[in-house]
Amino acid sequence: MTERIILCDFDGTITKTDNIISLMKQFAPPEWEGLKDAILDRSMSIEKGVGDMFSLLPSRQKDELVDYLLHTATIREGFGDFVQFAKEEGIPLYIVSGGIDFFVRPLLDGYGPFAGIYCNEADFTGPFISINWPYPCDGECGNGGCGCCKPSVLRSLSIPVGAEVIAIGDSVTDLEMAKVADKVLARDYLADTCNELGIPHIPFESFHDCVEALREGVRA
């Protein structure tokens, strides 16, 4: 049987809502909306837009931000079963997120271990939050400014030749990953954009749908 690996997004995929958007709606001044729109219409890079959005938030609010998400973010139905399915099938599951470490890791606590968690990092040492980008675009990424560049992360992994790469996501941060994956499970913005660009994909709403899609792949 062909070996498989899974690269799964976090915000809006594992969680029901995009946590960066949730934070901005709750805590940021109105300027964040223009930055968000520029990211979505791809006139501004993800790295630039997300960095600028977080620079609107004072570092002293860190505990308040974390507490807000821990009490409001909801994990999508079936995620625990999906993690268990991947474990039973021996499929490495990587979380590859354009989100930020201070909320990604706490919200994933209790679901792992995972083959790896890749996300951006917040620096609270200055008066306003700044974002560090430990997984930038490599020389093969033609997009530039991805922030956490998911295709570059994929290329950095030790993947067996011929392994099937499965990408799961929902947003603009997942588009470049979807372009290089062998199988794409998509919802929301990513599903719409895959339709526009002719990228084959399987729609999903819950992780039970994802388990079923991957089981169908095994039976096929």
Automatic annotation (TrEMBL):
Q: Give the GO molecular function terms.
A: 2-hydroxy-3-keto-5-methylthiopentenyl-1-phosphate phosphatase activity; L-phosphoserine phosphatase activity; magnesium ion binding
Any Pfam family hit: HAD
Q: E.C. number, please?
A: 3.1.3.87
Give the catalysed reaction(s), semicolon-separated: 2-hydroxy-5-methylsulfanyl-3-oxopent-1-enyl phosphate + H2O = 1,2-dihydroxy-5-(methylsulfanyl)pent-1-en-3-one + phosphate; O-phospho-L-serine + H2O = L-serine + phosphate; O-phospho-D-serine + H2O = D-serine + phosphate
What GO biological process terms are annotated to this protein in UniProt? L-methionine salvage from methylthioadenosine; L-serine biosynthetic process
Q: Is Metal-binding one of the keywords UniProt gives this record?
A: yes
Pathway entry: Amino-acid biosynthesis; L-methionine biosynthesis via salvage pathway; L-methionine from S-methyl-5-thio-alpha-D-ribose 1-phosphate: step 4/6; Amino-acid biosynthesis; L-serine biosynthesis; L-serine from 3-phospho-D-glycerate: step 3/3
User: Which principal EC class is assigned to this enzyme?
Assistant: hydrolase
Signal peptide positions (record): none
Q: Give cofactor(s), names only.
A: Mg(2+)
The alphabetical list of record keywords is: Amino-acid biosynthesis, Hydrolase, Magnesium, Metal-binding, Methionine biosynthesis, Serine biosynthesis
Q: Which InterPro entries match?
A: HAD-like_SerB (IPR050582), HAD-like_sf (IPR036412), HAD-SF_hydro_IB_MtnX (IPR017718), HAD_hydro_PyrdxlP_Pase-like (IPR006384), HAD_sf (IPR023214)
Which top-level group of life is the source organism from?
A: Bacteria
Q: Which GO terms describe its cellular component?
A: cytoplasm
Q: Which NCBIfam families match?
A: DKMTPPase-SF, HAD-SF-IB, PRK09552.1, salvage_mtnX
Q: Which PANTHER family match?
A: PHOSPHOSERINE PHOSPHATASE (PTHR43344:SF2)
Give the UniProt family note. Answer: Belongs to the HAD-like hydrolase superfamily. SerB family. Belongs to the HAD-like hydrolase superfamily. MtnX family.
Please give the function described in this protein's UniProt entry: Dephosphorylates 2-hydroxy-3-keto-5-methylthiopentenyl-1-phosphate (HK-MTPenyl-1-P) yielding 1,2-dihydroxy-3-keto-5-methylthiopentene (DHK-MTPene).
Any idea what this protein is called? 2-hydroxy-3-keto-5-methylthiopentenyl-1-phosphate phosphatase
Report which gene this protein is encoded by: mtnX
